Amino acid sequence: MSKGKLTVVISQAPGKNPAKRALEENLAASLLMEPGIELSIIPHLYDLGPDHTGRLFLESIPGDMVVLAWLFPRAAFWLLDRDGIRGTEGQSPLHPKAEKDDEDADEPPPEKAPGIGPVGEIPDRTIWCLDLRDHAGHQIYLEEIRRIGAEAALLREGRQAAKQATKPPAVITLGLPTQKKPAPEFTPETLLAPPSRRWYPVIDYSRCTNCMECLDFCLFGVYGVDGLDRILVENQDSCKKGCPACSRVCPEQAIIFPDYKSAAIAGAPVGNIGGLKIDLSKLFGGEDPMVVAAQERDRELVRDGRDAVGLAVGIPKRQTDKPKGPRDELDSLVDALDSLDI
């Protein structure tokens, strides 16, 4: 990879939808002619296993990059982070924002527990994730990549200046020359080798508060803790395909299933009140998400030949038998709805 160039990666949609393929191909054809861009195409990001060439290629990229995928940007960014492909999340005007009531537009955001953040060192680079579902034409993505390219160039200049200012004096060392491990060859054929479809949760550590409710709720051994007692997805292939139950019990909406049909679970921008998930349909007699989660979990337990447990195991106390305490914004909201007498 050449220094000073921006790496752009197109992650293909699963399946062979002609409209999606046309967008990918039109975008790729335009980017091949774009100066300062190094383009690569890989299969669906969510399906890449640790040994897939597309994943190894992503791990080899040292600098700034743009990833265009058929995923919400939040899901794509934390999916990359999970795979060890880390950086600072780049912001794009193409990203839709979480909806906010006009009445609250001038009010400061409510206080909420900060996320624990990713573990380990974050490389000094920026990763922009763009959702290919947002627009049908390729031109808007091309223009945004040009804008990102200019922004990335300014960021590179700033990093180089900072390195020069803090560069230590040169030290001459004598010794045997070290042999560098040959870099793997990334050809279009190996990059696009079709992976198997996968299903597993992705944790958004900017939201996760390490409450461990997912660990208590999941009975399939998907979650574990690392050496610092931080929650992680330890056995992702133990997750039951199509089941998003643990995402429903997460109080911070930090658990993402990127391919799920519901936008909130798939990683869409989400708002909150007082740090709690608010869904007005639930307040007007809809199904309780805890009940739905327990039903989804029971279904998978029965398929495994195990006994259903319902709401008896791993259901957060904050939802079922929360002790009385200071009233919060949710209490006030419910009171206001009650007063409408509807």
Number of helices: 12
Q: Which structural class do you get from the secondary structure elements? A: alpha/beta
CATH architecture of the largest domain: 3-Layer(aba) Sandwich
- Beta-strand percent range: 5-15%
Order of strands, main sheet, comes to 2-1-3-5-4
Query: Residue-averaged pLDDT, rounded?
Result: 84
Query: CATH topology of the largest domain, which one?
Result: Rossmann fold
Number of strands: 9
Largest sheet: 5 strands, parallel
**First-to-last CA distance:** 62 Å
Structure description:
- The chain folds into two domains: 160 residues, Rossmann fold (3-Layer(aba) Sandwich); 133 residues, no CATH class.
- The N and C termini lie far apart (62 Å).
- A five-stranded parallel sheet has the order 2-1-3-5-4.
- It contains twelve helices and nine strands.
- The chain is 33% helix and 10% strand.
- The protein is an alpha/beta fold.
- The protein is globular, with a radius of gyration of 23 Å.
Layout of SSEs?
Blueprint: E1 6-11, H1 18-32, E2 37-42, H2 53-60, E3 65-69, H3 73-82, E4 88-89, E5 126-131, H4 139-165, H5 188-191, E6 202-203, H6 213-217, E7 223-225, E8 231-233, H7 245-249, E9 255-256, H8 263-266, H9 280-283, H10 289-303, H11 317-320, H12 329-339
Parallel strand pairs: 1-2, 1-3, 3-5, 4-5
Antiparallel strand pairs: 6-9, 7-8
Quick structural summary:
This protein has helices at residues 18-32, 53-60, 73-82, 139-165, 188-191, 213-217, 245-249, 263-266, 280-283, 289-303, 317-320, 329-339; strands spanning 6-11, 37-42, 65-69, 88-89, 126-131, 202-203, 223-225, 231-233, 255-256. With 342 residues, the protein is α/β, with parallel strands linked by helices. The chain folds into two domains: 6-165, Rossmann fold; 202-334, no CATH class.
